[in-house]
């Protein structure tokens, strides 16, 4: 192939897909900058390793919480804005349990149940951690899931079920109302202060080329719990009759009705599975980052929406993949831009990917 | 030969006196929301019979079928199946009595595999009936070949076969087919009609709506001509094909 031909092909490509070309140039510039940083010693490989690990953890939380959002979207056909506050509610219920078990006899029960509202008890003082108080943490995980299930079923029964056949916008706006009600109820009960919840967890240091990457016990816990639950959802959807019925209903609601699939049962299962995962995601999020505030779920919701839309709304694998992309982007963007803009970077990447693949990574069709 | 509201829907087609009626529709009024489409529709399907409904667009052919399956608003009249009154029942109840329904459009689950689609056909059973699935695979060998493929990636004809296979999973006594040949290439249309013949010969009664009226009437036992939501003619398929009036008004000469 001659130079002229290469040139004309390149020209052709640039004309047909100018956007892809611009994108490629930007990626090259960013990589070049990164390599320069590595060459001059300004950036260390270990820093990158740390950021990737951090992004992976964040991505797991987002992905786990995103599955529920994606499921309710594909099966119930609405974007549930109260999802973020299910996360927070799961977190508070779980952490109240953890505080209670870890601090029983050492602090006032009321203070423990309010997760140390107003600085009455500190998680660090109680020495809370996966290795130091395993029972309290495991019980907290279970309660967070159970409470979020109960909450999402109760909200569905009282609020969403009566308006099930309204259009998506009505449901969406209602869910925003539910979100506010839940959030300020939690603020009223637990207070608005952000509290530290865990003692410093023990960590292992991995030597990585030119430095160390620290991986702590809570990272590992998050990794194990999130992977296990994601695998569980996968098996449920692919192997069980209920899971297949859920996918069938997401695919074609009218046909599901004709084949005798009990739609209310599938809806209930959707809230149970989605709610449980969401509650646990909330608990794990707090365990991993070590602080808890009434706004945590709401703030995370935007990233979750970004992840779910990026993955192709309605696809649970898309939610997981989208979560990882958003998490990694938010963490790794600090290599190039100030950390205050890391959320913005996540959204920019979402927009860019959607420009290239408008239907999302997993083409947003169904819970598959 | 013309059927008005007073005469028996089966008079004059060699079915008087048959007592093995499977589906009996009488004076059915039905529609969608407040809009009435059908007026006093009478229809019978006997055990193992192959019955076709033809008529112009908007005649209420599909609506009749949907009404039997409980998918429309019931406004009057009765639907009986095997001496059981199923008037106004919901689809999830009706599949239990032995009626299978294949809608015209969106009749598969596109992201489920072929086998999963068939499993969903037997959702109301506790166990997937392996013999019924085997029978479907025997009837449609292409489905066995493609059993792990996502249904939405198959061709239109294969999807139509899958839709029929799904409806056969419960081994219904009566299969309702809404325009099974719609959108198929000409050579596939013949194959589709052959398959329907085979299903019927195996003992399943068929009630079918077809745009391809001549071919459908050639193959069926009996046909109903509907117009404006009412019965117009009823006779054997061949008799309807030979009837001058029917040919001129409904079969394009």
Describe the structure.
The complex is a heterodimer of chains A (368) and B (253). Chain A is mainly alpha-helical and 368 residues long. Chain A has a single domain (45-356), classed as Orthogonal Bundle (ABC transporter involved in vitamin B12 uptake, BtuC), CATH 1.10.3470. Chain A is 72% helix and 4% strand. Chain A has a two-stranded antiparallel ribbon with strand order 1-4. The relative contact order of chain A is 0.18. By secondary structure, chain B is α/β, with parallel strands linked by helices. Chain B is 34% helix and 26% strand. Chain B is built from ten helices and ten strands. Chain B has helices at 61-68, 91-97, 114-121, 130-139, 141-145, 156-168, 186-201, 213-219, 237-242, 244-250, and strands at residues 21-32, 35-46, 50-54, 73-81, 84-85, 99-102, 174-178, 205-209, 222-227, 230-236. The radius of gyration of chain B is 18 Å and the shape is globular. Chain A binds chain B through residues 241, 244-245, 247-248, 250-252, 254-262, 365-366, 368, and chain B through 69, 71, 91-92, 95-96, 101, 103, 106-112, 116, 119-121, 123-124, 166.
How do the helices and strands line up, and which of them pair or pack?
The complex is a heterodimer of chains A (368) and B (253).
Chain A lengths: L2 H14 L1 H23 L4 H32 L6 H21 L5 H5 L9 H4 L7 H27 L7 H23 L4 E2 L6 E6 L2 E6 H23 L1 H11 L1 H6 L4 H27 L1 E2 L3 H16 L4 H17 L9 H15 L12
Chain B lengths: L20 E12 L2 E12 L3 E5 L6 H8 L4 E9 L2 E2 L5 H7 L1 E4 L11 H8 L8 H10 L1 H5 L10 H13 L5 E5 L7 H16 L3 E5 L3 H7 L2 E6 L2 E7 H6 L1 H7 L3
Parallel strand pairs in B: 3-8, 3-9, 6-7, 7-8
Antiparallel strand pairs in B: 1-2, 1-4, 4-5, 9-10
Helix pairs in contact in B: 3-6
């Amino acid at each position: 192939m001659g130079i002229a031909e290469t040139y004309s092909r390149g020209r052709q490509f640039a004309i047909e897909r100018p956007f892809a070309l611009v994108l490629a140039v930007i990626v090259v510039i960013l990589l070049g900058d990164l390599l320069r940083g590595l060459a001059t010693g300004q950036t260390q490989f270990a820093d990158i390793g740390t950021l990737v690990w951090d992004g992976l953890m964040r991505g797991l939380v987002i992905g786990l919480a995103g599955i529920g959002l994606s499921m309710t979207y594909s099966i119930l056909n609405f974007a549930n804005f109260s999802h973020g506050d299910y996360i927070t509610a799961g977190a508070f219920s779980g952490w109240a349990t953890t505080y209670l078990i870890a601090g029983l006899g050492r602090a006032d029960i009321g203070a423990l149940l309010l997760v140390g509202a107003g600085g009455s008890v500190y998680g660090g003082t109680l020495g809370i951690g996966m290795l130091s108080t395993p029972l309290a943490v495991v019980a907290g995980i279970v309660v967070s899931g159970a409470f979020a299930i109960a909450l999402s079923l109760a909200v569905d029964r009282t609020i969403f079920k009566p308006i099930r056949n309204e259009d998506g916008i009505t449901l969406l706006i209602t869910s925003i109302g539910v979100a506010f009600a839940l959030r300020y109820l939690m603020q009223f009960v637990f207070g608005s202060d952000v509290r530290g919840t865990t003692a410093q967890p023990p960590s292992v240091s991995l030597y990585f080329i030119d430095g160390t990457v620290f991986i702590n016990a809570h990272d590992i816990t998050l990794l194990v719990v999130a992977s296990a639950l994601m695998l569980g959802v996968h098996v449920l959807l692919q192997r069980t009759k209920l899971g297949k019925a859920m996918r069938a209903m997401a695919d074609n609601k009218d046909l599901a009705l004709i084949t005798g699939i009990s739609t209310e049962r599938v809806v209930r299962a959707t809230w149970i599975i989605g709610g449980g995962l969401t509650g646990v995601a909330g608990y794990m999020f707090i365990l991993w980052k070590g602080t808890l505030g009434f706004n945590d779920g709401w703030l995370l919701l935007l990233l979750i929406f970004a992840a779910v839309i990026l993955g192709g709304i309605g696809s649970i694998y898309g939610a997981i993949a989208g979560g990882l992309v958003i998490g990694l982007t938010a963490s790794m963007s600090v290599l190039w831009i100030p950390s205050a803009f890391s959320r913005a970077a996540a959204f920019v990447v979402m927009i860019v990917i959607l420009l290239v693949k408008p239907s999302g990574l997993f083409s947003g069709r169904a819970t598959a | 030969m013309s059927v008005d509201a007073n005469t028996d829907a089966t008079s004059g087609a060699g079915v008087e006196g048959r007592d093995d009626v499977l589906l009996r529709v009488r004076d059915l009024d039905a529609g969608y929301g407040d809009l009435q489409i059908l007026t006093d529709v009478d229809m019978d399907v006997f055990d193992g019979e192959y019955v076709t409904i033809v008529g112009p667009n908007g005649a209420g052919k599909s609506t009749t079928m949907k009404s039997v399956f409980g998918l429309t608003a019931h406004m009057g009249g009765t639907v009986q199946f095997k001496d059981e009154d199923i008037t106004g029942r919901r689809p999830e109840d009706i599949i239990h009595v032995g009626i299978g329904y294949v809608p015209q459009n969106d009749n598969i689950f596109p992201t489920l595999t072929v086998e999963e689609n068939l499993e969903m056909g037997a959702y109301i059973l506790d166990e997937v009936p392996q013999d019924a699935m085997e029978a479907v695979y025997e009837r449609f060998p292409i489905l066995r070949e493609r059993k792990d493929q996502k249904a939405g990636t198959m061709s239109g004809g294969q999807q139509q076969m899958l839709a029929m296979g799904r409806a056969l999973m419960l081994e219904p006594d009566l299969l309702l087919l809404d325009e099974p040949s719609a959108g198929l290439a000409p050579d596939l249309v013949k194959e589709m009609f052959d398959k329907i013949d085979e299903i019927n010969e195996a003992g399943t009664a068929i009630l079918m709506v077809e745009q391809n009226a001549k071919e459908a009437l050639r193959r069926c036992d009996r046909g109903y001509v509907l117009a404006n939501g009412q019965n117009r003619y009823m006779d054997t398929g061949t008799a309807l094909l030979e009837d001058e009036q029917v040919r001129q008004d409904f079969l394009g000469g």
